[in-house]
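request received
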Amino acid sequence: MSIPAARDKFRKFLTQKGLRVTNQRLAIFDAAFAQKNHFTAEQLLDYARVIDDSVSRATVYRTLPIMTESVLLREVDIGTGEKFYHPNQEGGSSQVAQVVCLDCDRIFEISAPFMEWYGNTVSSKLGLTPVTQRLQVSARCDTLRMTGTCPRRAS
Amino acid sequence: MSIPAARDKFRKFLTQKGLRVTNQRLAIFDAAFAQKNHFTAEQLLDYARVIDDSVSRATVYRTLPIMTESVLLREVDIGTGEKFYHPNQEGGSSQVAQVVCLDCDRIFEISAPFMEWYGNTVSSKLGLTPVTQRLQVSARCDTLRMTGTCPRRAS
DNA sequence: TTGTGTGCAAAATGTTTGCAAATCA
DNA sequence: TGATTTGCAAACATTTTGCACACAA
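response:
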């Protein structure tokens, strides 16, 4: 899905929910979809303020759940205290794992189709039905360890 | 490993690290190992104060990392803001997944031996070496949905 | 017009830290 | 003795909320 299409989906989602299409919400959307990597609420505030300097921290925090609910954004919690967000370009399969590089702090999204099977297997033994599942790997950079430089640092 | 053995391991760990064996630290240990389910720092403070009412919140927060480092306690972050802890009775394999029941808020620890394979597979594609991995499933109680009562609520 | 959305600042939450007094080795 | 540990309260970091004003429908 292209960014204009996503923007349109966002507007439609707001309208259909009886929410208003405000400049701030659009600025936050634009800021989010201009990002290549994962970002925090605070970073998104900075980005959004470049587009519209009237955007406040409160509005960012109030808009993020809306964008998450509309499946335009994916929320990622890697246990660092702050939440990360990521534009959800595709349909929005939840069968995605994260690999977090401890050296460059980058988060990689990796397809993990077997997660659903695992969730079902393990939950059914407990008499539970899985709702969500998450798989996260934290790892160290091989190249950095061997050569002293992380190839991804540069890019 | 029995509780007395674990207690002994804790004392040895402290001494060997040049840390002191204080009443507060022992009270916190005893409180932690008396728990059946996962607990938070705040809950542990309450439990420890029953044993020794001089225990403060700060000491609990300062002791938890020590007990985690000594592999007597396992830290579990399920993305709810607060961290949970759990006595690590066995050797301490990190190949454990958590199933969190959204209805009774209980956390179940489940062996997940394939996680290591997965971490290696996915990380190597990125030129990374896995350090830790976590797999968490959130689920709903079947019995509660069908009969209106959660069998685990009672116990 | 009017009720939703906004910015601001204060509150809430979970955790960490500075410091003087207490205590273990 | 003397350095480590403690309790207290203040500091922190992130997120949430109350309220009066602004603005989209």
